[in-house]
Amino acid sequence: MRILLTNDDGYFAPGIRTLAKTLAKEHDVVLVAPEKEHSGQSHAITIHHSLVVKKVVIDGLDIDAYSVSGTPADCVRAGIDKIVPWRPDVIFSGCNLGYNAGMDIIYSGTVSAALEGVLLGIPSVAVSAEWVDGDAMFETAATIGCRIFEKVKDSFLSNPEPTVLNINVPYLPVDEVKGVRVADIGENAYDYYFEEEVDGERILSLKGRSKMEFKEGTDRYFLKQGYATLTPVIYGSADLEVMDRLTSWLDE
């Protein structure tokens, strides 16, 4: 199978290297990833300057790899349009350093790279590993992520509506992960707020207060219990019920 692999942590990140090694055992993989970290960039694209593409060598990998001076979404579109010599069967994004669960997926460059694939008609997979004190078990995340994909790939790839499979994996050895749960998108792990300083000008720093409890059945609820989670994500269309309501308001 032909796979385009990207991320938002940069082509040099250990998470993408680990996922590349795992995927390359069974598949034809080309890596196209940002030249620097783009965490929290969501679905930003570059429009005010050109992109620079460089072929790069990544230690321990024997695959074609490229850096792009742009965002994760740029990497996917440029990869498909100009860099990769074939149209991918599937796009993988990750392994990200830290969960992309709850409403944090809105801000995620990892998930948005996968969603860019969906916009181009290609089913995509986002894989994220729990962050603990600056570390993540990428081997666990890559192994579990690939196992999930292999189990569902026939139905997933034949689905007429391309979808993102958003996979999150806890900070545990592979044999200690309790299993996989299909889960709804839950709330954020943090209550975000700005901490303000005044030193001749107002300076705002984004902070977050950790939450401890999560709604039953959501991704973070299961992750806290030691399960990996799987959530299908698509770009929403207009809400038809709300459209009818708006039409009625205009006609009043």
Rg to the nearest angstrom?
19 Å
What is the CATH architecture assignment?
Answer: 3-Layer(aba) Sandwich
Net shape: globular
* Amount of beta strand: 25-35%
Family: Belongs to the SurE nucleotidase family.
GO cellular component, one term: cytoplasm
Organism: Aedoeadaptatus coxii
Function: Nucleotidase that shows phosphatase activity on nucleoside 5'-monophosphates.
Topology diagram in text:
Layout: E1 2-6, H1 14-24, E2 28-34, E3 53-55, E4 64-68, H2 72-83, E5 90-97, H3 109-119, E6 124-129, H4 138-158, E7 164-169, E8 180-182, E9 190-198, E10 202-210, H5 219-224, E11 228-233, H6 240-251
Parallel strand pairs: 1-2, 1-5, 2-4, 5-6, 6-7, 8-11
Antiparallel strand pairs: 3-4, 7-11, 9-10
Helix pairs in contact: 1-4, 2-3
Function: Nucleotidase that shows phosphatase activity on nucleoside 5'-monophosphates.
Keywords: Cytoplasm, Hydrolase, Metal-binding, Nucleotide-binding
GO cellular component, one term: cytoplasm
Task: Provide structural commentary.
The protein is α/β, with parallel strands linked by helices and 252 residues long. It has a single domain, classed as Stationary-phase Survival Protein Sure Homolog, Chain: A. Strand 1, helix 1 and strand 2 form a beta-alpha-beta unit. Helix 1 packs across helix 4 and helix 2 runs parallel beside helix 3. The protein is globular.
